[in-house]
Specification:
heterodimer, A: alpha/beta, Rossmann fold, six-stranded mixed beta sheet, four-stranded antiparallel beta sheet, 10 strands, about 40% helix, globular, B: mainly alpha, ABC transporter involved in vitamin B12 uptake, BtuC, two-stranded antiparallel sheet, 2 strands, about 75% helix, about 0% strand, binds adenosine-5'-diphosphate, binds magnesium ion
C-alpha cells in the first residue's frame, strides 16, 4: 500500500529525517513510534505532500507520489490527521465531517448524510450539532479522525490521535480504529500510548533522531535495547536489565 | 435559525424591498434605497471572498472601477449597446480579479499581505486611469451622452427620460434585480460543495488541503465570483450617473464601503451585507437629519458618530448584526430553534 524509500529532509542544519524507509502492507495497522522530536510528524508531512523531501521516494498504491500536492494525494486515497488538531472551529461537527465527505461527494445533502454515518462510526453522533470550537481535546482528536475518514481513504495516517486522552477515552478509541481497519482501510499511526500501539498494530517502526533504528512485531521491538535507550537515554537498557535480574 | 425561519425572513425582506418604493413618492427616498441596495450588492461581492473565504481585500474598488470603466468606455468610444457592454465589463473584471488572485494565491499571500496587494492594485489602476488619457480620458473622467428619447430608454439603459413608471423606479428595480440575482447565487453557494470548501479554506487552510481541497482553485473561484458581482455594481453606477472618473472608480471609498457592510452586518452570511448596508445608510441618514442639523449642519458630524458606532459594533458584536438577530431570535423562540 505504502512504500517509503530512503527519504531525507533537513531544516537548515537539522537532519529531521535521514534515509528513512518503511513499508505498510494493505489491510494492516502499522505503527511508528519514537521519542519527541524524532521526526515522526515530519515523516508524515513528507508522505502526505505537505513537505517536499530532499531525496527519496514515496510510493502509494503503486504510484510515485513524491512531491505531489497534498490535495491530490488525498484524492488518491491517502489522508493524514494533524497531531496539533486543526478543526474548522466555527462549523459544527457535522459540517466539519461533510467537508471531508465532499472530496468524493459533490451533492451537499449526500455529503451531510455521509457525515452522519461517519460520526456514528467514530462515536460522535451525539455531537453532530456542536460547534467544533467547543469540543474537548478528546472530541477534537475524534473529529480529526472522522473528517479524514469521510474522504474514504485507502490509507489513513493518524498522528497521535490518543495524545491527551484519559484512559477511558483511549479504551473507547482503540476499538474504533480496529473497526476502521476492518472496513478495509490500511492504517499507519504515530502513537505514544503503548497500550494502543501494542493492541492495535501488526508491525512497528521506531524512529530516533530522524533514523529508523528498529522494526518488527510490536512486542519484540519495544523490548529491544536500542529502542529502550532511545526513549530512556544512554545506558538505560543495561540498567533496566540489571534491575530485572536483581528482582528475579 | 432553521432553514424555514430563514426562508420566512427572506420572504419578508424581499417583499418589503419590492413594495416599499411604491409607497414612497419621493425621489430622495428612492435614491436612498437605491444606494442602500447598491452597497448591499457591493458588500456581497466582498463577502464572497472575505466573509466566506477569509481573504480580506482592501481594494475592491479595483473591481468596481474596472467594471465601470469598461461599461462607460465601450459606449463612449465604440457606441456599443450598454446591454452588450455589461457582459464585457463582467468578463473584464473577472479577468482582472483572476489575475490578482492568481498572483496572490499562487505565492501563498494571506492576511494583511493579500489586503495590501489588492490595495496596491487599486491604487495602480487609479494612477493608470488618470495618466492613460488616450484610453480612459484621464482625470476628467468619461461622461456618457444623455438620451432624451423616451422610446430609447430601455435600449440605452437610461431611465431619466423614460415613461412615468420607469423614470421613477427604473433604477430602483434594476439594483433590486441585481441584488436578487447576486444574493440567490450566494444562497446557492452557501449550500454547495464549493461553499463548504471555501469556508473550510477560511477556517483552516492546511486542514482543507489535507482533506483533498484544491485551496488555490477554490480561492480563485471565489475571487472570480466576487469580481462578477462587484462588476455589476460598476455597470449599475455608470448607467445611473452616466459618469465615471478615476477617484470614484478606483479611490478607497468603494473599497471601504464594500467591506464595512458585511463586517457590520455579519461576515460569511447571505443577509449580512444587506443588514450592514441598511444600518450604515440608516444611521448616516438619521444623524444627518438630527444631530447634524442640531449642530447647524456642520459636515462630518455623521462621520464621527458613524465611526463610533462602527467601533462599538466591532467590539460588542463580533458576529455583526446577524449575531444579534440570531441571539434575539433564540430568546424569542425559547431556545427551541438555535
Ligand atoms: N518546519 C520546520 N522547520 C524547522 N524545524 C522543524 C520543522 N518541523 C519540524 N522541525 C524539527 O524537526 C524535528 C522533528 O520534529 P517532528 O517531526 O515534529 O518530531 P516528532 O513528531 O517525532 O515529535 C524537531 O527537532 C523539530 O523541531
Ligand atoms: Mg509529532
Amino acid at each position: 500500500m505504502l512504500e517509503v524509500q530512503g527519504i531525507n529532509k533537513s531544516f537548515g542544519g537539522l537532519h529531521a529525517v535521514s534515509d528513512a524507509s518503511l513499508f505498510v502492507p494493505a489491510g494492516k495497522v502499522v505503527s511508528l513510534i519514537g521519542p519527541n522530536g524524532a521526526g515522526k510528524t515530519t515523516l508524515f508531512a513528507l508522505i502526505s505532500g505537505f513537505l517536499r523531501p530532499d531525496s527519496g521516494t514515496v510510493i502509494f498504491d503503486g504510484t510515485d507520489i513524491t512531491g505531489k500536492a497534498p490535495h491530490l494525494i488525498c484524492q488518491m486515497g491517502l489522508v493524514r490527521t494533524f497531531q496539533v488538531v486543526k478543526p474548522f472551529a466555527s462549523l459544527t461537527v457535522r459540517e466539519n465531517i461533510a467537508v471531508g465527505a465532499h472530496t468524493r461527494i459533490a451533492d451537499r445533502k449526500a455529503a451531510l448524510a455521509k457525515a452522519d454515518g461517519v460520526a456514528l462510526l467514530v462515536g460522535m453522533d451525539a455531537m453532530l450539532e456542536q460547534s467544533a470550537g467547543d469540543l474537548t481535546i478528546a472530541g477534537r482528536k475524534r473529529l480529526e479522525l472522522a473528517r479524514a475518514l469521510a474522504t474514504e481513504p485507502k490509507l489513513l495516517l493518524l498522528d497521535e490521535v490518543m495524545a491527551g486522552l484519559n484512559a477511558t477515552e483511549i479504551a473507547e478509541l482503540v476499538p474504533v480504529i480496529r473497526t476502521i481497519r476492518d472496513t478495509g482501510v490500511t492504517i499507519l499511526l504515530i502513537e505514544h500510548v503503548m497500550q494502543a500501539v501494542m493492541s492495535l498494530s501488526d508491525y512497528t517502526y521506531v524512529l530516533n533522531q530522524g533514523v529508523m533504528i528498529a522494526e518488527g512485531e510490536p512486542k519484540t521491538v519495544t523490548s529491544s535495547p536500542d529502542v529502550i535507550e532511545a526513549y530512556l537515554g544512554h545506558g538505560a537498557a543495561e540498567r533496566l536489565a540489571k534491575m530485572e535480574a536483581r528482582d528475579a | 435559525m432553521s432553514e424555514r425561519a430563514r426562508l420566512s425572513g427572506w420572504t419578508i425582506i424581499l417583499l418589503t424591498l419590492a413594495l416599499l418604493p411604491l409607497y414612497l413618492h419621493s425621489a430622495r427616498w428612492i435614491d436612498f434605497l437605491e444606494m442602500t441596495l447598491f452597497v448591499a450588492v457591493l458588500g456581497q461581492g466582498w463577502n464572497i471572498l472575505g466573509g466566506y473565504g477569509g481573504q480580506y481585500s482592501f481594494g475592491n474598488a479595483l473591481l468596481f472601477g474596472t467594471g465601470a470603466y469598461i461599461q462607460a468606455l465601450l459606449q463612449f468610444k465604440f457606441g456599443i449597446s450598454p446591454w452588450i457592454a455589461m457582459w464585457f465589463a463582467i468578463a473584464g473584471v473577472v479577468a482582472v480579479g483572476a489575475m490578482v488572485g492568481f498572483l496572490s494565491f499562487r505565492y501563498g499571500l494571506r492576511g494583511s499581505y493579500f489586503a495590501l496587494i489588492t490595495l496596491a492594485f487599486a491604487e495602480a489602476f487609479l494612477v493608470l486611469s488618470r495618466s492613460l488619457k488616450s484610453i480612459t480620458e484621464g482625470g476628467s473622467g468619461v461622461q456618457l451622452a444623455l438620451n432624451q428619447d423616451p422610446a430609447q430608454a430601455i435600449a440605452t439603459f437610461q431611465f431619466n427620460f423614460a415613461g412615468p413608471f420607469l423614470k421613477e423606479y427604473g433604477f430602483y428595480y434594476t439594483i433590486f434585480t441585481i441584488l436578487l440575482v447576486t444574493y440567490a447565487i450566494t444562497w446557492w453557494m452557501e449550500r454547495s460543495r464549493f461553499g463548504a470548501q471555501l469556508v473550510a479554506v477560511r477556517e483552516n487552510e492546511d486542514a482543507a488541503l489535507a482533506l483533498g481541497i484544491n485551496t488555490f482553485k477554490v480561492k480563485l473561484g471565489a475571487i472570480c465570483l466576487s469580481s462578477a458581482i462587484t462588476a455589476s455594481c460598476g455597470v449599475y453606477y455608470v448607467q445611473k450617473f452616466l459618469f465615471i472618473e478615476p477617484g470614484i472608480a478606483f479611490g478607497p471609498s468603494k473599497s471601504v464601503e464594500a467591506l464595512f457592510a458585511p463586517i457590520i452586518g455579519g461576515l460569511g452570511t447571505v443577509v449580512g451585507p444587506l443588514l450592514g448596508s441598511v444600518f450604515i445608510h440608516g444611521v448616516g441618514e438619521a444623524t444627518k437629519m438630527t444631530i447634524g442639523q442640531a449642530l447647524g449642519g456642520r459636515p462630518g458630524v455623521d462621520l464621527i458618530l458613524f465611526g463610533t458606532i462602527l467601533i462599538l459594533v466591532l467590539a460588542f458584536l463580533p458576529r455583526g448584526l446577524v449575531g444579534l438577530v440570531e441571539a434575539v431570535w433564540k430568546r424569542l423562540s425559547g431556545g427551541r430553534d438555535a
